[in-house]
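Pipeline run #58 for the internal structure catalog. This entry was flagged by the ingest filter as a single-chain record with no existing model, so it goes straight to prediction. Upstream metadata was stripped on purpose; only the residue string is passed forward. Reviewer on rotation: M.T. Logging verbosity set to normal.
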Amino acid sequence: DIDDVAAQVASLHAHAAAAPPGSGLGSAVQVRAALQACLDGLRAGPNTPAEDEQLLALGLWAGHAYPALAPVFERRAASGRVREGHGDLHLGNVAREQGHALVFDGIEFNPAYRWIDVMSDVAFLAMDLQAQGLPGLAWRFIDAYLQHSGDHDGLRVLRFYAVYRALVRARVARLRAAQAGGEPRARALASAAHYLRVACTLARPGPRALLITHGLAGSGKSTLSQALVAWGGAVRVRADVERKRLAGLAPLASSRSLPGAGLYDAAMNVRTLAQLLAAARAALEGGWPVILDACFLRRADREAAAALATELGVPFVILADRKSTRLN
């Protein structure tokens, strides 16, 4: 189901219209104002002392994170990453119908809410999966979406949008509490407190690291990396997928290339490595651990990955299949 949702969201974004240049939609100013409006609305209370402290910490975090991200927001808007998306992509707006995922109830009443960076949609569903205690599915969703879209640059802003979306859910719950009484009000306030805690958790980046696989084709690298994505929470970049993307093919399409030829010739190997390292850089600079899923049989390729880890000051790990190959 998660893979199905990821494919549908990626398709929605791929076919959605991009915001016109100069429209201001998805601009850095607009993004910051939206998050600030959530913080201001929640600060109006009523809050517990712990919630006041959380909101203060989140305000300080946003003030620190925004200046560095503002140019990224603007660049992504200029490059067509702000599109007419869903706008309200939480789990309450996803269902299962006739064996397939159904995404519904996109925002239509306010253009500013639906003309957003595509990664804001992704962050919303990933955040809500984590909020429901399903971090493995959250990372599987991100992983599948990235395989379809190739938008690794969006990992630079994923955390900011995830925190924002948690604050949106907290504010919506507070508004519901203000309109209710008794048990419904208590549930709404509990929901708001929960999403506020989720926002604080997401604002704290975990340890970064660059991991690469090392082994012959068919040795189980992708199976291992998929398990690590769901278990530990990491961004995975697959050489097979990126190689096909460079050739204009879908992730699951057959390349019909023989070893050492076509998509696997020396020139394409160089381009694929560059693509992997660029994606890893974006993810690491966004504060995420990364797994590069490739054979990495050439020492020079492993050294290039190690050099990136050294440059960014993160640990470097080789996941080697010693049954099928050895480091050389």
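catalog note: The chain has a mean pLDDT of 93.
catalog note: The longest strand covers residues 210-214.
status: ready for reviewer M.T.
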